[in-house]
Design a protein that fits this description.
The protein is an alpha/beta fold. The chain contains 17 helices and 20 strands. Strand 19 (466-471) and strand 20 form a beta hairpin. The N and C termini lie far apart (64 Å). Residues 1-5 have low confidence and may be disordered. The structure holds adenosine-5'-triphosphate and magnesium ion (MG). Adenosine-5'-triphosphate binds next to helix 6.
Length: 505
Amino acid sequence: MMVEEQPRHRLGTVVCTNDGPNVMEFSFVLEGGTNETTVRRGEFVVVETEFGTVVARVQDLVRTNRYFQHAEAVREYQSRGEPLRSIFPTDRWQYTVGETRVVGFWVNDRTVRPFTTVSPGAVVRRADEDMLAKFLRLDTEGGLWLGKVANHELEFRASIDQLLSKHLAILAMSGAGKSYFVSVMLEEIMSRTEEQGRLSVVVIDVHGEYSYLKDIQPESLGLPAGSIEVEHIRGSHIQIPVQSLTAESLSSYVAGMSGVQIRDLRRTISDMRNQFKEGYTLTDVINVVKDDETISKNTREALVGWLFNLEDTGLFGKEGVPEMKNTVRPGKITLIDLSDFVSLKKKQIIVSHLAGELLYLRRQGRIPPFLLVLEESHQFCPESRQELALPKARIETIAREGRKFFALLCLISQRPVKLSTTVLSQCSNQAILRCTNPYDLDHIGRSSEGIDRASLDAITTLEVGEALFVGETVSVPTFVKIRTRRFEPQGNARNLTEAIKKAEK
Ligand SMILES: Nc1ncnc2c1ncn2[C@@H]1O[C@H](COP(=O)(O)OP(=O)(O)OP(=O)(O)O)[C@@H](O)[C@H]1O
Ligand SMILES: [Mg+2]
């Protein structure tokens, strides 16, 4: 006999509850007797109505059986040694109610907000994958293949415009899979063709965990040889050109330079720019300040002290290394590996310099649109004022203004509560992975619109590698199982046992 297509997708029937069905919620009783159809929590279901398709997410499943409603009676039969099951047809009286939350309507090929309610007695069906892809606004053709929609067999292909063009924040506790997700995303960005348009990416790699990308063979991603360009730059090779620095930017690298000191330094620098046509070093500035009788003795000593401190970092020189305007190119990934540095201050100076430089060059149209990936971003743009962080102002500027000319941020943090709210609220997209800290959850809940209590609760139960996408990437908050990487770094120990065994050899 031919199995009809429709009944297979039938899950159950809408029932009346104390306050439902209403616009935002409805419950349905699952079909089938003892062999109930399987419905999963988190799954999308649909109800067809005369005005369009109602799409809802299963929030909970409640099972009841009237034979077991009275503890007294159950206990009585139990003590007699006669299970209820052997006397009454208890199985036939078991049923399950699926509680759902309406996420949107699909009307005339468009996602719209819920505006009316389904009727009791309406048939609830499994969401069809093609319709779901359209409803969620996935880009099934040219999108970045990041994983699969949880509880469905639907590939999660995010449109690059929706995912990246208004900044992305990736938030989760340590070990939840943030960096792994970034490497999956980078694989996808690298795999784009010239016709699709290739984004340039600058990764601030605080722990040196992306340096393996330079070993990626294009063939392993199914790409022609030579089609991937990854440049690995060690932090210790970076040199900030002193000539490009104003007194204000120099003062931003030290804490507490006074107005008078900045004013005198500004004059010194503007004189030096005319005098030293070939560029100059901090030592040159120090010498000029030392000999400048027009500056008061106190100011001179203070300035020389600040400048010596900066000189000590070894980060400044005559020329800029690397020259960002020649480094950032379409389709290229530039890794700024800061794993050599212990000092947070040095890392901050570099990030501050790069963020400023990238934004400046992009504004002038001298580099292509870029994505700046910033690991440990709470260290570079913290919320608290006490923690002095040099790059904060610059990153906030990119967050506020960058989207207009496609200077884009991808911020990663395991302590969202410590991350600047200004920056976080500018990220129109968030990928939230497992997170159990109540303060962080609270912060995430407050800084992202459209995330409801139930989704927030679900974040604590996510597994490693599962993410909730909120924002413009998808039409409604969506849980995604991030795919495995196509290229696995070699030689990294996966766990403690492996690491200690390796150390023995
Ligand atoms: N999508 C995934 N598929 C398979 N394994 C994964 C996935 N995501 C994460 N993992 C595993 O979990 C480990 C930890 O992930 P990852 O290093 O990305 O965590 P993290 O969130 O960046 O942590 P931290 O905040 O400490 O940097 C990975 O090394 C990998 O083994
Ligand atoms: Mg990480």
